[in-house]
Specification:
Number of helices: 15
Strand content: 5-15%
Order of helices and strands: HHHHHHHHEEHHHHHEHEEHEE
Radius of gyration: 35 Å
Distance between the termini: 48 Å
Largest sheet: 5 strands, mixed
Number of strands: 7
Length: about 425
């Protein structure tokens, strides 16, 4: 029993990002328990006509069992049997099925019928059955549930009593006839409003978490820039100076080794600086060409390799995935020119058309045999990345003749 209560308490705070009672499901179950207690009080106090109390104990038991199952489903049944429910497809049937909401309303009205119809001690209990569809399906669910409940309630009251005469008392319409059909609308629309409010609150909380994570990444990037990146930059300058001194003193072997270390140091600096930037916000700030210009400036600063860039055409609207993909492919192509090609110059062409984007990265380095590039690493995974973006990539290279990488991309519709 203690572990059950502990599990209930844990789920109470964890479900729906820790919203607790503000979780629409818990709100719905909690309100229904309150109305069940009201029904219990009316029956115990005999605060209703005798004909409305005859089946009271039996109906209290049935409705109590129903509520108990609802209460235990989220914290106990769902976690324990979720794999089975997902494997059989019942998880969606249990949690996203309007038939269940309609069945709940129908069951509640049956309880009203067997408790005498008009003046039923279970009226409030039945009324709150419109909460679930209103919370789950919003305004449309609230409207359908309210109309359905009001019409069915009047039919149930008429069937449980002497027909339409149930609506009259001493020759006059009973006062409850005016409020009874309106009450479901008030409850349902308030619930729909609450559901919309909670959805927006959840979205805002997610946005705040995202901003906090972004701020933390920016802080780490600043720390890396002021620490490791600056140290590597100074190391690169020192290695270059040592290589120059070695050359003047005639130590060609040492000079060659130091120049190799300069290349490794520049590559490490390039990779560290690239890892400092989160591409999400960066690629949403403006045109893709502006973001790529930053990349070119950074590459030239780190590698000391000049980049000749040309743009043509009007940039189409690209999805975020494609913008990031183009950036990553260009980034890897430049890394190859810096690390492996020993290039002295890089030329980049980015052409925009109404139905395609064409990126060409060409260097004058030592080249290689494309067949020797291992899949899943470096240039080897560019083709698969391009395919995922809905494009094609071609790598042309030959030892001693440089490397040419061409990407052709068809713009995908935005999500």
């Amino acid at each position: 029993m203690g572990s059950l209560l502990q599990n209930l308490r844990k789920r109470w705070h964890e479900e729906q990002a820790g919203e607790g009672f503000l979780n629409p499901i818990y709100f719905w179950v909690g309100v229904r328990w309150i109305t069940w207690i009201i029904s219990l009080g009316i029956i115990l106090a005999a605060a209703a006509p005798p004909e409305n109390l005859q089946n009271g104990p039996l109906l209290l038991t049935l409705t109590g069992v129903q509520l108990l199952v609802m209460t235990l489903y989220l914290p106990v049944v769902r976690p324990r049997y979720r794999p089975i429910l997902e494997r059989t497809g019942l998880i969606r049937w249990c949690e996203d099925n309007p038939v269940l909401a309609a069945t709940d309303i129908g069951f509640s009205l049956v309880v009203v019928y067997f408790s005498g119809g008009w003046n039923s001690p279970f009226y409030e209990f039945a009324l709150t059955s419109v909460l679930a569809p209103s919370l789950k399906y919003g305004l449309r669910g609230a409207t359908l549930a309210s109309f359905g409940f009001s019409a069915a309630y009047l039919a149930v009251v008429s069937a449980a009593g002497p027909g339409v005469e149930s609506f009259y008392e001493d020759g006059r319409l009973v006062g409850g006839l005016i409020s009874a059909p309106i009450n479901p609308f008030m409850v349902a629309y308030f619930s729909a409003f609450l559901s919309e409010l909670m959805n927006r609150l959840s979205q805002e909380k997610a946005r705040v978490r995202q901003l906090a994570a972004q701020e933390e990444r920016n802080r780490l990037a600043r720390d890396m820039h002021d620490g490791v990146a600056q140290t590597l930059f100074m190391l690169t300058l020192s290695l270059e100076a040592c290589a120059e001194i070695a050359g003047r003193q005639g130590s060609e072997k040492l000079k060659t080794r130091l120049e190799g270390l300069v290349g490794v140091s520049r590559q490490a600096l390039w990779e560290i600086r690239n890892s400092m930037y989160d591409l999400g916000p960066l690629l949403e700030e403006g045109p893709l060409s502006q973001t790529l210009d930053r990349l070119f400036r950074e590459f030239q600063t780190v590698s000391q390799i000049p980049v000749e860039v040309s743009y043509s055409g009007d940039e189409p609207v690209l999805s975020k995935e494609q913008r990031v993909g183009v950036y990553r492919i260009l980034q890897e192509s430049l890394a190859n020119a810096c690390k492996h090609s020993r290039a002295c110059r890089v030329r980049v062409e980015l052409g925009f058309g109404p139905d395609r984007v064409r990126l060409v990265v060409e260097d004058d380095g030592q080249g290689f045999e494309p067949a020797s590039v291992s899949r899943g690493r470096g240039l080897g995974n560019l083709a698969s990345r391009a395919h995922e973006l809905g494009g094609e990539l071609e790598i042309r290279s030959h030892p001693g003749e440089g490397t040419r990488i061409e990407l052709v991309l068809n713009p995908m519709p935005l999500n």
